[in-house]
Design brief:
Layout: H1 2-10, H2 14-30, H3 74-86, H4 88-109, E1 114-127, E2 133-149, H5 154-220, H6 226-260, H7 290-293, H8 295-315, E3 321-332, H9 335-340, E4 343-353, H10 361-427, H11 433-467
Antiparallel strand pairs: 1-2, 2-3, 3-4
Helix pairs in contact: 3-5, 4-5, 5-6, 5-8, 5-11, 6-11, 8-10, 10-11
């Protein structure tokens, strides 16, 4: 009696004992889940500042959503807006976004009950025990309801994975929109640069034509040699050769921009000239801010979140699943009775099912899901590093191109002065006409270089705004 009393006193109360038993059972079942390898250690380190520091006067400049309007050209703004509204790739991205939103709804539906209804009318002719045939009518209607209890959170993990994939696709569409806007702006600026080069070449051709005619007259009167006349003719033909090349480049650039905006190949409306276009200030920003400013980084992050959720769902496949089902309905042998007082039938079922032997399939699937998670973790780090490099390159490009433009301006001033002196020397008979032709060629090359540099500075500013996120904000 004493031994029995002691054992009874040492045993926990019934409710506590049941709770401990349930907890031990749950822990045992959780231990049956597949083993997921640990996530790789992060190797990403954020730099504290850019290698090329922005200008001190640009510290107050913030990224704007419609940064292309800062160029001050309504035609440029209209072109970008048209591209964002009608570009074919963006329309595909938006349609894909609707698909991923529907996938979230499909995944979420597995967490809710399912109900189905069916009815049937059956007429059969059979033989009785005495061999006499008889006809039987059976009328029945039935509904079925089923619900899976998400004890381990596997269904919730599947929904989380679908939702994270949807957010990643949303960021992907935003990244495509940012790229399309930058491509449209860059293409338009390059087009205006080609227009300026064509205008310069046409003006240069007119000057070369007058120089050629002058050299020809001087050769005919014996004032200069035939060599000078032929050299002037060659310079004229060289300038004339540039015009069809530039017109072809303009033609192709217009077609590319038209297709980018979702239209057929055709002309592109112009606005401000290249000389009147002003690049916006360099925007402010720290490397750490790119993690939320660039949609491609957010996309990589959301893909990693989706991979972790998919890993949880795959790992828990070995755990038992608990399902509740209910079936109810009515049946009668006569239609009148079926419509008024059918015989009620019902069935309630509670089911627990767990895999016993899968041949290592679930563990292999878990290992594959873990490997996919690791790949996306590395991809996220690569995306961040690429963003750092693109932004640093953009800052460096703008700074170096501006320095180059200063040197080009000095070079052009020297070439203009050289041409002035060469022209005076030739006019006074102290030098041949070849000196002036050479000075004209040098000045023309400097002018072309100046136009190209101005175009490159404008395009580099577009690239920098795109690299820094373009005013996009994570939703």
């Amino acid at each position: 009696m004493n031994g029995g009393a002691g054992a009874s006193a040492a045993r926990p109360p019934g409710t506590l004992w049941a709770a401990l038993s349930a907890g031990a059972l749950a822990a045992l079942l959780i231990g049956c889940a597949a083993k997921a390898p640990p996530a790789p250690a992060a190797t990403l380190q954020l730099p504290g500042a850019w290698r090329t520091a922005p200008d001190a006067g640009a510290a107050a400049t913030a990224l704007e959503g419609q940064w292309w309007q800062r160029f001050g050209d309504p035609a440029l703004s209209a072109l970008v807006e048209r591209a964002l509204a009608h570009n074919g790739d963006l329309r595909i991205a938006r349609a894909r976004l609707l698909e991923y939103r529907a996938r979230v709804a499909v995944a979420g539906a597995s967490q809710r009950p399912s109900v189905s209804v069916d009815g049937a009318a059956t007429r059969t002719r059979q033989l009785a025990y005495n061999g006499v045939p008889y006809v039987t009518n059976v009328y029945q209607a039935e509904f079925q309801a089923a619900y899976e209890v998400d004890v381990w959170g596997r269904l919730a993990a599947q929904t989380d994975a679908a939702n994270a994939s949807y957010l990643a696709e949303q960021a992907s569409a935003d990244a495509a929109a940012l790229s399309i806007a930058a491509s449209a702006a860059s293409g338009y600026l390059n087009l205006r640069g080609l227009d300026a080069q064509l205008e310069l070449t046409v003006a240069t051709l007119a000057l070369r034509e007058r120089s050629r005619d002058l050299a020809k007259r001087q050769f005919e009167v014996g004032y200069s040699s035939r060599l000078e006349w032929l050299q002037a003719q060659a310079e004229y033909q060289s300038a004339a050769e540039q015009i069809p090349q530039l017109r072809r480049a303009i033609f192709e650039q217009e077609n590319a921009l038209s297709v980018l905006c979702g239209g057929n190949p055709g002309p592109v409306p112009r606005g401000a000239t290249l000389a009147s276009l002003t690049p916006p200030p360099v925007p402010e920003g720290l490397p750490s801010e790119l993690l939320r400013r660039r949609p491609d980084i957010v996309r990589a992050e959301r893909n990693l979140v989706a991979a972790n959720a998919s890993l949880r769902a795959t790992r828990d496949q070995l755990l038992p699943s608990f399902k509740l089902s209910a079936t109810g309905g009515g049946q009668s042998l006569k239609l009148h009775d079926f419509l008024n007082t059918p015989t009620a039938l019902w069935r309630l079922t509670g089911m627990a099912a767990a895999p016993v032997f899968e041949g290592g399939r679930v563990q292999a699937q878990t290992d594959a899901a873990a490997a996919q998670r690791d790949q996306l973790a590395y991809a996220y780090e690569n995306a961040v590093r690429a963003a750092f490099a693109e932004t640093d390159n953009g800052l460096g490009a703008v700074a170096r191109l501006r320095e180059q433009a200063v040197q080009n301006d000095a070079r052009r001033a020297t070439a203009a002065e050289t041409l002035r002196i060469a022209h005076n020397r030739y006019s006074n008979g102290y030098a041949s006409y070849l000196e002036e032709l050479d000075a004209q060629r040098t000045l023309y090359n400097a002018d072309v270089g100046s136009l190209q540099l101005r175009t490159r500075i404008l395009v580099a500013t577009v690239d920098l705004y795109r690299a820094m996120g373009g005013g996009w904000e994570a939703r």
